[in-house]
Each structure stands twice: as structure tokens, then as C-alpha cells.
Amino acid sequence: MSERTRIISVDAIREATAGVYGGAIRTPLIRVDTPAGAPQDLQLYLKLEALQPIGSFKIRGAFNVIRQLSREELKGGVWTVSAGNAAPGVAYAARLAGVSCSVMVVDSAPQTKVDAINRLGATIVRASYDECWETAVRHGSDRMRGYFVHPFDDDRFIAGNATAAVEIVEDLPDVTAVVAAVGGGGLLAGITAALRAFKPDTAVYAAEPETAAPLHASLSAGRPVYFERWQPSFVDGAGGKSVLETMWPLVKDVRASIVVTLDEVARAIRFTAERAHVIAEGAAGCPVAAALSGRAGAGKVVAVVSGGNIDLPRFAQITGASSLAT
Fold first, then answer.
1. Residue pLDDT, tens place only, 159-189
2. What global pTM score does this model have?
3. β-strands 42-48, 29-32: how paired?
4. How far is residue 236's CA from residue 33's CA, in Å, rounded to a whole number?
5. CB of 234 within 8 A of CB of 314?
6. Are 178 and 186 in contact (CB under 8 A)?
7. Using CA atoms, how far apart are residues 313 and 74, in angstroms rounded to an integer?
8. Which residues pair with 305 in a beta bridge?
9. How many angstroms separate the Cα of 187 from the Cα of each of 56, 114, 117, 249, 276?
């Protein structure tokens, strides 16, 4: 199948739904009261993927890939490249499968994510952001050994991610819109594929930080482009420097990519902690911020709280809790 017509099939999503719960859990979908200033006709729901065993939706895709690998493919262990959440996802799934795991980790990854990888027994190989991104683009690295589990550009990984949207439709059949952060695009692609199959009248929106919004730029250009103004920030799990050409067919049909400021993300993280009593990392705050802005429309809007792996001192700083410490 050519990249131009790449799709995630309904059969692949159904197969993932039948098998992914050997590693992932079905996460809650809760309604939260919106703050003053939010659109009055907005009914906001949060899909709490931060409550997965590894604190992120990535366990869905990682487990769905590894459970389908043959003994021959697994005999040398597995590896991935990650800015954070894919690493513990693959490491956790590898541990369940009883195989070794190594991870190329971007050197700016939050310590809480590095600690999680260590706890799961994976070997860490440090690399620059650019080397990690090049590894994702090339689907390989001369420095790594074993079976490469791509952190987003793999149909099985995407089908696993799609199971989150299947749960949303089952729990909220009249959902109006779903908003998800986009980094590599694996979560957004999975949600888009599932909703196209099972609830095609539901709008799908991406959410990106102003410091890293390549999908917004690409949608404006009508093709994958490089985001020239990229800057690192506490939103480390969303917003890359570009959209991979291989992922473009799977993400280009979203309703829009909503770009949010870092201040909006910080307020959304605090809002999630106050209303849902859940810690959201920077990427997870983006969809909440986008939904609260009203730009994802009215009605029953679901923001996917994709992960909660953030260093606690940074979380305290973002939410203002550090000023309350004694």
C-alpha cells in the first residue's frame, strides 16, 4: 500500500481491542465542570490515559506490537527511541513478554521518565534530540540492536492507540469532538482511524504548543513541512520539528490543529489537577487547553489526557504549588 493511501484498517483496530488489555487497562472517561470564561455550551470530558500502568497511552501501542512478534523476532530483544513515554511503554511490554529491552533516550527527557525506564529494567542509551529524531525518521540506528519498535510510525502501534477512541465511543456514544496532542502523530492517527470507522460524525482535533506546531504549519501548507520556530519547553511529549511524510496520510484529515500557548497549557494542567485530581504532563495539558478555549466546538468534547509523567518539582512550579510549600 502506498503512503498516499495508508490507512489503519477496522480489522486491525478490532484485533487490537481484543488483545491490548493484556498490558493496558480501560481508562475512565469523566465529565468535569468547566471554569468561568469557558464556552457555556461546552460539556468537557477527560479521557484519563495518565492512569495507565506506565502513566501514558503508549502502553496500548507498545503492547499491541510486541504481543504480535514471533519468537524469532523477539530473540534479540527489542528497542525503541523516545523522548519519554514510548520508552516505558516498550520496556513494560517487553518485561511482560520476558525479553530484553534497550531505549535510545533523548538527553532532555524528564528525570521521572528516565527513572521509570530504569525501574522496568531497560538499558538506556543517551542521544541528542536530533539523533533521536533522525532514528525515528530512518527507522533504525547503527548503535542499537534487536527488533525496533517504532514509537509511533507502525500500523500495529497506531491500532493499539486507536483502542482509546473505541472506549470513548462506547462510553460516550454522542461524543461531539475528540482532541488529542500530536507529537509523532501515533495517538492522533489511531483516534482518527477509530472514529472514522465507528463514529464518523465526530470531529477530531489536534493540539500543539506554540513552541512546536509542525502539524498546524503542515495543514496550512497542505503538505508536511519543517517547523522553523521550534523551541524546547516543558511540553516535551508533543510537538516535534516536522511531520513525517509517512504519517501525513493518517493525520492530514483532522478538522484542525489547535495551537495553544504555554500559559494556557500550564492553566490546563492545574485545572486537571483541581477538577480530576490527576497529574497531567505538558503534552496532556494541550488538548485540555484547546478544549477550554472553545476552538474544538461545543457539545460533548473529549480531551485526551495522554500522560502524567512529569517531574514533580516541575509540576509544582507549573501549577504554582511550589509557592505553597513550607
1. 999 999 999 999 999 999 999 999 999 999 9
2. 0.94
3. antiparallel
4. 27
5. yes
6. no
7. 38
8. 48
9. 11, 21, 21, 14, 22
